[in-house]
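Q: Sequence in, structure out?
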Amino acid sequence: MPFTTRSYWSEQMNGQKKGRERVEHTLIIGAGPAAVQTAVLAGRAWKGDVSVASRPGSRFRKLKENCVLKAEAKDRPAMSGEVSVSRYYDGFTKVPDRYSTIILCTPDDAYGDILESLEIHKRSRVQTVMLLSPGMGANRAAESIIRHQQVEVISLSNYYAATKFKENSFIAFTKAVKKRIYAASNRTGTGLEKVKQLLGPTGIDVVVKDAPIEAECRNITTYVHPPFFINDFSLDETLAETRSVKSLYKLYPEGPVTPSAISDMVKLWKECSVLVEKLGGEPVNLLQFLHDDNYPVREASLSRADIDGFIDFETVKQEYLLYIRYASLLIDPYSEPDVEGRYFEFSKVPYQQISQNEAGEWVLPRIPLEDYKKLKVISRLGRECGVSLSMTGELITRFERRVNGWQKETGRIIAGFCPDGGEGAV
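A: Exactly. Output:
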């Protein structure tokens, strides 16, 4: 396990010599590209060490060979850089109580197990727990585990970039950055200022919301992924062992976008909106959020009045406007056409499919497995709050029926798929 030359105790003594200033350290949880990118930003934004903890595995074993983690971003110098890793930890039970900020850079269904393993309720130094990509209700569940009045739990609306590892390396390459991220805390403190210190230099606009649920509900994947990718068309592609030639965001028959899928999207959004209001938050205007915070279309396709007034329209008009939006984004309407007048084919995103990992286990791609897990959490949250979520339940049933059918037909088991009682510790 690589260490930097300065030890923890020498830093504490140096801090005491400088007026008893307490050295504050950061712990990054995760071993993926988002964790590496976040570690680099944390090393630049805050004083103190940056350490990394993750569940043992082949990827983490290889990551630990790097004393320095690096990130690169095209045309984004503020996202590029490197950080010396003070310590790596296999698992969470032996992580010492020396970290004031803990950032969870894992899928949100793992949050509960991680916080329990850290025994975070026993830690005296931790001040801030930051949830990088939480689902709805994640802050509430994390707070119930932490049980410390002085610990802030910060929810970001979602991960702030699109980041992958460069081929055959652990260099995080960020190809796109979100223009806006929403953040909220469960209590008053300095945590939101830390978020601004972390992301401010990158040019990302950090919008502070009043309640964690208002940040957590502002994640585009919550509303878009389940209706588009948990249906027979998409699951046929995901579960096929022959290479898919279909695309994630094309209209049927090239992709999953149909009036029926759009109808499911509106139903899911309305259910989530009722749940957000029940939890004391303000729901999103779905079309406005998709247009202003994600990918805009031309005024000729969708008027500003239709975008801003979307939440008050009848269901049939809402479905029509969303269908127009996705039809308008088959190409990038703001790209430069080529010599033959063709625009960039924005919607041609391939399906990731079921495959075997290094251990020989059959695994589903992140889309739609993580989306299914988030739906399970939303379903549980709805039951706790007494909110009926029929569309959410239907999407869960669809996914489980198809995946269980694949397992029965092939005689194989899919790792990470737990339909019974598997609603996840958030």
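The domain at 8-216 is CATH 3.40.50.720 (Rossmann fold).
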